[in-house]
Design goal:
GO molecular function, one term: hydrolase activity
Structural class: alpha/beta
CATH architecture: 3-Layer(aba) Sandwich
Low-confidence stretches: 1-26
Number of domains: 1
InterPro entries: Alkaline_phosphatase_core_sf, Phosphodiest/P_Trfase
Shape: globular
Order of helices and strands: HEEHHEHHEEHEEHE
CATH topology: Alkaline Phosphatase, subunit A
Oligomer: single chain
CATH superfamily: Alkaline Phosphatase, subunit A
Pfam family, one: Phosphodiest
Keywords: Signal
Number of helices: 7
Strand order of the largest sheet: 3-1-2-8-6-7
Number of strands: 8
Strand content: 15-25%
CATH class: Alpha Beta
Length: about 190
């Protein structure tokens, strides 16, 4: 998997858009959906006919040139950078797999949190939302299953899984907007 991630070089296309779902009768209908498709170049939407993704970009917000990866161009460090707004040297995730000498533990995508997120300067967007009493669902996003300073998102997947199809992940994300008062949904797909 590491070799695959390296070969893909984390060319990630971000689709950011605000959803206004009429089904929800709330005073604030603003919703934010962030989808990360690993290996999906920003210019694929121009080169290929992708009706659903083109519709999403036309009705919402998109990046002009995709996401510019931080160095090292790997999935886990970049996704933590996206979620926190911090560079790797600040949030501490430097590779998809690494040995934490302080914890004496090998860290990977699915490593369960045992207290490594105690730096109060490291705060993903879903934790900020939670602190503001906004409901967030984080699906398969690297580190989403970990506590940050004792706080977790309203809903998160406990482990990343390649076996869950993208269609199912998107259906789950939409369900959070339709059937509940979630205001932030983030999902990652390899």
């Amino acid at each position: 998997m590491t070799q695959r991630c390296i070969l893909l070089s984390i060319i990630i296309h971000w689709i950011l858009f605000m959803c206004h779902i009429e089904i929800i009768s709330s005073t604030d209908n603003s919703r934010l959906l962030i989808i990360s498709l690993d290996g999906f170049r920003h210019d694929y939407l121009k080169k290929h006919v992708l009706r659903t993704l083109n519709q999403i970009q036309n009705e919402g917000i998109k990046t002009k040139h995709g996401m510019e990866p931080t160095f090292v161009t790997m999935t886990m460090p970049n996704h933590v950078s996206i979620a926190t707004g911090m560079y790797q040297e600040d949030h501490g995730i430097i590779h998809n797999r690494f040995n934490d000498t302080k914890l004496k533990k090998f860290i990977t995508f699915n490593t369960k949190d045992i207290g490594q997120w105690t730096d109060y300067n490291v705060e993903p967007i879903w934790i900020t939302a939670t602190k503001q009493n906004k409901k967030s669902a984080v699906l398969y996003w690297p580190t989403s299953h970990n506590e940050f300073n004792g706080i977790r998102p309203s809903y998160y997947t406990s482990k990343y899984s390649d076996s869950v199809p993208l269609r199912e992940k998107i259906d789950d994300a939409i369900t959070f907007f339709r059937n509940s008062s979630f205001q932030l949904v983030m999902l990652y797909h390899l």
